[in-house]
Amino acid sequence: MSAMGMSQEHDEMDECVQALARVHAFLHDELVEADADAIRIHLHACERCMENFEIESTITEMIVRSQPVDKAPATLAARIQTMRITRR
């Protein structure tokens, strides 16, 4: 493999590592839109990462389903939403 090919492969691996490191934040809608878009683009282009994402997504869905359906008080939910908006 040429040096150019190795460099491209290394760059792709860096993208994979970065995407997978942020997959939980992505799944929980905790990324700013530009970062979420970058993850979406990478997932659509990288079959290996998409497979990992699907596994993480399935696990997250199973965890959510196993949780009680208790809802936070409306005032707490509003405060959290305000914090999320100002953080972005």
- Approximate helicity band: over 70%
> What gyration radius follows from the Cα positions, in whole Å?
17 Å
Task: Tell me the fraction of residues in β-strands, as a range.
Answer: under 5%
Form type: flat
Instruction: Write the element-wise H/E pattern from the N-terminal end onward.
Output: HHHHH
Distance linking N and C termini: 42 Å
What summary fits the major beta sheet? Answer: none
Q: Structural class, from secondary structure content?
A: mainly alpha
Output mean pLDDT: 82
Total strands: the figure is 0
Compute the number of helices: 5
Unreliable sequence segments:
1-7
Briefly summarize what is shown.
With 88 residues, this protein is mostly helical. The chain is built from five helices and no strands. The longest helix is centred in the middle third of the chain and has 20 residues, at 47-66.
Describe the structure.
The protein is an all-alpha fold. 81% of the residues lie in helices and 0% in strands. It is built from five helices and no strands. The chain has helices at 3-21, 23-27, 33-45, 47-66, 74-87. The longest helix is centred in the middle third of the chain and has 20 residues, at 47-66. The radius of gyration is 17 Å and the shape is flat.
